[in-house]
Design a protein that fits this description.
By secondary structure, the protein is mostly helical. Helices cover 58% and strands 4% of the residues.
């Protein structure tokens, strides 16, 4: 009897260890507050640092992190300027912020690779259904590196999304 109890006890301990290490997570989207908390931890900074970097108040950042915004859902709807400022402050793409806000349709969250050339940038716009006109034509993008092109793509998506999913914009 003692031997069975010992095995049962051992089984419970090893099962608990396995359960603690093996958690199945499927199709769980990161909320804005989760994104903020994760990046704050990864960057080793505090809410006040995010506030300083973004130009928003500590209270505003705290409300986002703690989901205590004075709205029914407890979350904010960010303006394109806020999306851009927080993306820079947290060192993430604007698309990540928009995904956390659930602003991008599923097909826009994945499958778009980082553009490395102006041609790839315009291809990505086309696949996203965005028609962007540049004052100086397509040539104004020549000389931009892939990070600049990605930032421009993120801004275009954020702008189009924030403006009621208008399909056209002028830059």
């Amino acid at each position: 009897m003692e031997n069975i109890t010992g095995h049962l006890s051992e089984y419970k301990i090893s099962t608990a260890r396995i359960q603690n290490k093996c958690i199945l997570v499927e199709n769980v989207k990161e909320k804005l507050s989760d994104l903020f908390r994760r990046r704050i931890k990864e960057l080793g900074i505090k809410n006040v640092d995010v506030a300083s970097r973004s130009g928003f108040s500590r209270g505003y950042v705290g409300n986002i992190v703690n989901e205590t915004a004075p709205t029914q859902s407890g979350q904010y709807n960010l303006s394109p300027d806020a999306v851009s400022a927080f993306a820079k402050a947290l060192e993430v793409s604007e698309s990540e912020i928009l995904e956390a806000l659930n602003y991008l349709p599923e097909n826009q969250n994945t499958g778009i690779k980082k553009p490395t050339t102006p041609a790839e940038f315009f291809d990505a716009l086309e696949r996203l259904g965005l028609d962007i006109q540049f004052a100086g034509g397509r040539k104004v993008l020549e000389g931009l590196d892939e990070d600049d092109l990605q930032e421009l793509l993120d801004t275009a998506v954020a702008s189009a999304t924030a403006k009621g999913k208008r399909k056209q914009a002028r830059i």
